[in-house]
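Much of the work behind modern protein science is quiet bookkeeping, done one molecule at a time. The fold becomes a row of whole numbers, each drawn from a learned catalogue of backbone shapes. The protein below has been through that process, and both of its lines are reproduced in full.
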Amino acid sequence: MGPRLQRVPAAPFAIAGGSVERARFARELHDGAVQSLIAVEMQVDVLRRQSVSQSGGLTKRIGRIQGLLREEVLKLRELMHR
């Protein structure tokens, strides 16, 4: 008879594959959505600074939008590192 084949559980390979997929997904989020949100947040910051001399109400609204963008970036970063 030939050599005995030993059965290797598939779970370690599945875990490794999932880990690779998570890393790829995190890279795509970082290179795509996160970078876009940061670019928008920076543009909003420029508008906020320019609006200070024009209208206080507008400055506050822009500041709130900027805060929301910043929160979403932080949430995405946290998601990427899970």
In short: The CA atoms of residues 4 and 17 lie 27 Å apart.
